[in-house]
């Protein structure tokens, strides 16, 4: 169940990171409220995950998935640069996260 909590926490991390783009510096109330809610849910789920997962592994996986998801969302939602090197570095993050998952022991 801890890995499920962690994956959900990472999904909400992607939501709040993307949501920041819509808050206009936290000046738009609805996007700001949704972004802050996603932050809270993400943190609560991460806290549940680390009850049984090693904090170093859980935090690295959480941030890795969040970074990959946010980078990909930026390309598709906001027209950020698409390049082979950009996607290669994103792939390296995926490899690192996968390695941490495989070696976590849970």
TrEMBL record:
<dbReference type="GO" id="GO:0005886">
    <property type="term" value="C:plasma membrane"/>
</dbReference>
<dbReference type="InterPro" id="IPR000390">
    <property type="entry name" value="Small_drug/metabolite_transptr"/>
</dbReference>
<feature type="transmembrane region" description="Helical">
    <location>
        <begin position="84"/>
        <end position="104"/>
    </location>
</feature>
<keyword id="KW-0813">Transport</keyword>
<feature type="transmembrane region" description="Helical">
    <location>
        <begin position="33"/>
        <end position="50"/>
    </location>
</feature>
<keyword id="KW-1133">Transmembrane helix</keyword>
<dbReference type="InterPro" id="IPR045324">
    <property type="entry name" value="Small_multidrug_res"/>
</dbReference>
<dbReference type="Pfam" id="PF00893">
    <property type="entry name" value="Multi_Drug_Res"/>
</dbReference>
<keyword id="KW-0812">Transmembrane</keyword>
<feature type="transmembrane region" description="Helical">
    <location>
        <begin position="57"/>
        <end position="78"/>
    </location>
</feature>
<dbReference type="InterPro" id="IPR037185">
    <property type="entry name" value="EmrE-like"/>
</dbReference>
<keyword id="KW-0472">Membrane</keyword>
<dbReference type="GO" id="GO:0055085">
    <property type="term" value="P:transmembrane transport"/>
</dbReference>
<protein>
    <submittedName>
        <fullName>Quaternary ammonium compound efflux SMR transporter SugE</fullName>
    </submittedName>
</protein>
<keyword id="KW-1003">Cell membrane</keyword>
